[in-house]
Every structure is written in structure tokens, then in C-alpha cells.
User: What shape does this take?
Amino acid sequence: SLIRKVLLKDAKLDLHKEYEEIGNQKLGDVLLTPTKIYVKAIKYLLGKVDIKGMSHITGGGFYENVPRMLKEGQGVTIDTTAYPR
Assistant: This one.
């Protein structure tokens, strides 16, 4: 419902139109693409690395989800230059 409001009503985008910003694909096809599942990669990492916390980050949820895995009184510093955009 939020995607309908933002993309279709507010921005007046067309589900049947191809957009350069999404690789010249139809907006409707992109929105119907299933979420990639990372279970195999996470299971592998759990066997190799001592992971203290993780969260599934989508859209603007980064700033909402990271604090959920922290105990009260803990904080986090995120180096945004450490990852390519």
C-alpha cells in the first residue's frame, strides 16, 4: 500500500513503463521480483565468524533495525565510507 501511494499516486509512475533507473525494466516487474534469500550465506558465515548481531535491512529500515539488536545503553558507529554505494 505504501509503494502504491508513493510511486503510483504521488509520483504518478506507470507500472507498465520501462524506466532507465531500474535497468530499462517495467516498474511492475521490478516490484514483483522476489526478495533474495540469504539463508545459505548466513549459515556459512555463522560457521566461520563470531557474529554478534544481524538485521535484514530494507529501504529506510537501516536506522530503525540496527538499534533493535543492541542492549540498552549500547551504541553503534557506522562507517558509511566502508561500503561502496
Remarks:
- The first helix runs from residue 2 to 10.
